[in-house]
# Entry
Amino acid sequence: MALGKRTPGFLAVLGIATAMSFAAIDDADARRGGSFGSRGARTFQAPATTNTAPTSAQPVQRSMTQPGQATNAAAPAAAQAGRPGFLGGFGGSMLGGLMMGGLIGMLLGNGLGGMAGALGFILQFALLAIAAMFLFRFFANRNRPQAAGAGPTGMPRGMTPDAPAQAQPNAAPRSGLGNLGGLGGLGGGFGAGAKKRPANAMNANDEVGITGDDLDGFQRLLDEVQGAFGREDYAALRERTTPEIMSYLSEELSQNATQGQRNDVTDIALLQGDLAEAWSEGDTDYATVAMRYESRDVMRDRTTGAVMSGDADALTETTELWTFARKDGGPWKVSAIQEA
# Structure
């Protein structure tokens, strides 16, 4: 009987302890997994596959971009197109008022007397004629059919100006950067047969014209962001990431500190990488790069430095897709990280 009374309390404590253990594991592995950040209008689209990441990336799990946000850009234009014309605005109200006033005057038979009454009748008749003409033109324009097979811009339906080419799923593998261990970083190894878009396009999905210097900068950002995260260097992270990514990394660092641990990331080396896609949205350029790298990644006790999880003597390999963004041609910053 006594055991029966203690059982519910014991189960409750066990459930809380289990939930806390899962939360601790999730926080400890926060930087080692998960997809977060923003890729502009492509946030919830899978990046193009590459030799480095031949399978689709994990969908973004945390983002300040809302699904469908990019597709709502045409809403103001549609609302403007559907807005009433002259007859639905001030002009319609004015003509309606004059017509009503004229009709009331005619029905009552009251004018200013003599010639004034005649002129008033003529003016009222003219206003009615003008109003009828406007109404006729208004309904004629609304009922006029569009040319068959043409879209709003006069182009064939299904076509949009400068529609970007889509990568074919069964197409031959694009020339990538290959194994970077013998190519000196992200800058070389592209084949000459890749389909070009801009004059210096890296591949068929490069709509910006990414250069070797850009790729070298991406590799540097991989090293510097990982190192700054391990050192808990907030200033360095803020300089190299977008405010959204900075908020997520700061949250994870704060959780680690609360739990008395620190994520130590050292000996970062890029093994392979290639450009998945690059595009522009307004004054912002985006580039998504698949990167396979190795590092020593462990959790340490903040006080003693003892390893709490991971192996400090072993290098682990990670494949991720990092998206970089630059505004008005400024420096590239990390804007999204996705698991491959």
Q: What stands out?
A: Residues 213 and 338 are 23 Å apart (CA to CA). The chain has a mean pLDDT of 73. The beta strands are 36-37, 261-281, 284-301, 307-309, 316-327, 333-339.
